[in-house]
Amino acid sequence: MVRQKCAMSNLRKMPSLSVLMGLLLVACGGGGDNASAPGTAPAPAQGAPDTHAPVAVLAAPANFSSDLTGAVSLMATATDDVGVTEVEFQVDGVQLGVTLAAPPFTASLDTTQYASGQHVIRTRAVDAAGNTSAWASASVSFGGTRTQPAGFTRNESWVTGLGNATALAPAGDGRWFVATQGGALRVVKAGALLAAPFVQLAVDSSGERGLIGVALHPNFATNGYIYAYYTTAENGTHNRVSRFTASGDVALAGSELKLVDLPALSSATNHNGGALHFGADGKLYIGVGDNANGAQAQDRTSLFGKLLRVNEDGSPVTDNPFYATNAGLARAVWAYGLRNPFTFAVQPGTGLIYINDVGQSTWEEIDLGAAGANYGWPGSEGPDGVGAGITGPIFTYNHTAASPPGSGVGGFFTGIAITGGCFYPSSGAFPAMYEGSYFFADYGSGFVARYGATNSAAYSFGSVSGNPVDMRVGVDGALYVLTRDAIVRFSGP
Fold it and tell me: CA 207, CA 230: separation in Å to the nearest integer?
């Protein structure tokens, strides 16, 4: 090997072994101040720019550590071909303490400052040339029974006595409109539930049917338009979207305008969807379940298992992806392959759409809304079965814990039905770390979590004692979580 690399010849002329070894070291790049330690990149040649990133390792805590309590010690190691100048720790995407310029690279984390549940700890290193290492991270769970982060307040009795609530929508004047499954659209004003409903609809409330969606027109303050998604027995049982006009805290008599009548339902009473939201484009988006028939989700001419997009008068939008190939109301199909999009959300300003698709027996998922997207149901669920032409979820969690806990897709989160959700606005009162976060919940587990797209990770935010079905951010910047019986208010520091 030495003879091949160094091309030495006529060794008999070498004066001594020490001279020979010196020549070998020089010819092969060894020795001296520029020698590289095993496992690190060679040092840059004199005058050459340093382009080699350092390497950071999170030594503690171990990945998938569970039920961490009290003060937890963080420790990292970092190596570089020239020298590490700083090491940073983060918790849930937010820097912990100050950057460290020299070893030992350690920090202390107070778990009592965070809600119990999943959190992500990570570290990275920077060298003198500004090269930054990849993040080294660990998904862990904090133990205890903390139902919100330190400094936040959770009020589970902000509004009570709703009875089988399904959805809510805030008005810019501070009022809330709350849909209940039995057909009453209730009004919350100044923190009090009004005795008289905004409107009482005649609905079929068997199973998951009923009044299950509500949205306010973007110009509600001037036109008073409120949209409702409900199950009617009129002309055969089916789901309908109607518009009502507000007159104070009640609907103007005779103001119902029937905009969208979906096809007749089968005998199955589940998978109705129901979520309504106006997009940043001014169009109304409607979540429709598969009516317990998965094959319909893949049929682009069927309205079941879809996200629909219509004008405010209920007519299909002409630039919908299948407008030219479909006919009638099927021209409203905007995305397909969904099982039960009971809730979804539109980010203010950007128009970004996240869809919560309730799973069957294994996975719950958050999907990125996109025109023409196929989310795969019934051929795929969560990460399973995602192949060519399928838009897989951006986040998914299982119904059962992995072994060891935290090691599976979705980390420590488990549940039975994803609900929520809402984007926290940049104008909100929460600390900056929450801006842009997508909040979601689980109907069975009762957790409230947030997903950060920048780090593609989800973190525990809190929990509620009831069964969460919807959530929104109020005009005061607080997070409001609707359960079947109450509205829970999370206010910031």
Answer: 13
- Together in a domain, 85 and 180: no
Q: Do 436 and 428 touch, CB atoms closer than 8 A?
A: no
User: Are 237 and 329 within one domain?
Assistant: yes
- Write the CATH number for 316: 2.120.10.30
Instruction: Among 142, 161, 186, give the residue marking a domain's end.
Output: 142
Chain-centre distance of CA 208, in angstroms?
24
Residue 79 CA: distances (Å) to CA of 85, 358, 451: 10, 45, 31
Q: What angle do CA 464, 161, 477 make, to 5 degrees?
A: 50
For the stretch 329-361, pLDDT in tens is 999 999 999 999 999 999 999 999 999 999 999
Q: Determine the length of the chain.
A: 493
Which segments of 18-112 are extended strands (E)? 55-60, 71-79, 84-91, 94-95, 105-110
Domain limits for position 200: 153-491
Residue at 164 is within a domain? yes
Residue 42, domain member (yes or no) = no
Cα dihedral angle (81, 86, 87, 88), rounded to 10 degrees? Answer: -140
User: Per-residue pLDDT tens for 269-281?
Assistant: 999 999 999 999 9
213 contacts: CB under 8 Å, gap ≥ 6: 166, 167, 179, 227, 228, 229, 230, 241, 273, 274, 275, 276, 286, 287
pLDDT in tens, 423-463: 999 999 999 999 999 999 999 999 999 999 999 999 999 99
pLDDT of 452-466, one tens digit each?
A: 999 999 999 999 999
The reported pLDDT for the residue numbered 42 is 60
Continuous H helices in 282-419:
295-298
| Dist CA 227 CA 214 (whole Å) | 6
If pLDDT is split at 50, 70 and 90, which confidence band does 10 have?
Answer: very low
Structure confidence at residue 409 (pLDDT): 97
135 and 159 share one domain: no
> How much is the pTM?
0.90
